[in-house]
Amino acid sequence: MKYISNTPEEQEKMLSDIGVEEITDLFSAIPDNIKLDKPLELPEPISELEMMNLVNERASRNTDLTEADSYLGAGAYDHYIPSIIDHMVLRSEFYTAYTPYQAELSQGTLQAIYEYQSMIAELTGMGIANASLLDGGSAVGEAVIMALRHTRLNKVIMPKSIHPSYREIARTYGGPHDAKFDEIELSGSLTDLDQLEESLDDQTAAVIIQYPNFYGSVEDMKKLSEMIEKQKKTLFIVVANPIALGMLTPPGEFGADIVIGEGQPLGNGVNYGGPYLGYMAIKDDRRLLRQMPGRLVGKTEDVEGQEGFVMTMQTREQHIRREKATSNICTNESLNALMATIYMATMGKKGIEEVAYQSFNKTRYLKGRLEGISGLEVVNGDNHFHEIWVKTEKPAAEVFSELYDKCILAGVDLSQFGEEEGLLICVTEKKTREDLDKFVTAMEVAINE
Amino acid sequence: MSIPAGFYYSEDHEWVKVEEGVGTIGITDFAQDELGDIVFVELPQVGDEFDKEDNFGVIESVKAVSDLYMPVSGEVVEVNEDLLDQPELVNEDPYEDGWIVKVSLSDESELDELMDADEYSSFLEEEA
Prior knowledge:
Chain A is α/β, with parallel strands linked by helices. Chain A has two domains: 69-80 and 349-448, Alpha-Beta Complex (Aspartate Aminotransferase, domain 1); 83-344, Type I PLP-dependent aspartate aminotransferase-like (Major domain) (Aspartate Aminotransferase, domain 2), CATH 3.40.640.10. Chain A contains twelve helices and 17 strands. Chain B has a single domain (8-106, 115-120), classed as CATH 2.40.50.100. The two termini of chain B are 13 Å apart. Classes of the chains: A alpha/beta, B alpha+beta.
């Protein structure tokens, strides 16, 4: 990083060149009554050493995942991140202005995005993927308004089995578009499909299904697909965990129209909640493509027949006709998408499959052991991927707090979302049998003491 | 510049050809030539109703993005789906294969407000 020098002499020259005496004169257009008339109340400057000590002390007050044994999930998943990702992503070539407009200077970035898109399309079984969105939640919001535009209907079936925060974001996005959400109730850890079928009619713009759902269970996608197929206009939107797709049938094979989700599990750290990336893939359909937010990179040939990469699709409203814009997404999470790309390339099909199966098998082991504890119920039964919903006689907050004292983060306390009670427990491939056995013992003690 | 007789023309460079109360609508040879290579046509849906001068679609070329305006009022009875995959038909054959929508006219007297081929030809000369 080069600093741009700015000496007093240079300042003076710049000011005299533009005919101004002092820097404060540059702010003369701002009315005096809104200017601050006293200095900012900031502490005195400190040395770099003092600053490092201060920041380290503050940071050490956090509990991070290297010291705690975490079973937290609910949308942010702690998978192992191969060291090659950090090594590659820290290369300065990738730290460019985020928009690779100038194709001749951005071939590497463009190729990485193109490969990201190709891998996402393959993973989801869809025809087209964009260059990424902001995160999983906003991807759901974008998919909702996309469906409204495409179908020109405004009813959206959004079961309560979808992440409560995603639903909140979808309501925020859909509100100004007059979207009417029908939030179908749960039946156990699954969506009440009878209620869904009753609600589904020819006025339904979209049905959204999370796969696996927020409570960790896998919905009957075949049945859902058959129901939705009966409505000509209704779009089938699937919010899929990309790691789970290493094991589950890709949504494309169930006739999904739009597949979206949180891309964080693909090689991105949990990072206290962000930055993450949302992914979006759609079926190969020209009309739908034109409604897709964000941007798309394509492969082409130059005049000499050499392979090259360019931005091929962007919502034109990004540059012109802004009054007709359909989305405020005009960018992508390039660096996060790059991490996801390196992860997918490093793991390969087999690797992602193994991460999925290991996460699933370890969850199954933990579930079996937890079911042996009296005063504890696993709501999912055998239908789960890498998360289970556990109800305890003792309030979840108390159980969590007791395990927290042993440096175990026992799961997400569902009561914070105001709908259900219990703990949502996630197990990834990082856990060992020793970890899991220790967890079970701690749970036994917490529940039965 | 081709300006066939028997068509009605608007000042927005759209044409209408009427057969049994149904108006086929497209853009003129002049318009396609001005726009250059057309890369996308955003179509309305069958059943959409428009008043004269309503914006009913968008045409995008390598040079510009332009709104399409209805030369007459009516309900869309058919759209040219071929344009989704072959928008270049508008360049190649603006008066035949490059048609955009067909509407059932709600008020045929509106046709009187449009130009015939000779009038449109003079209009273009005046504009130029």
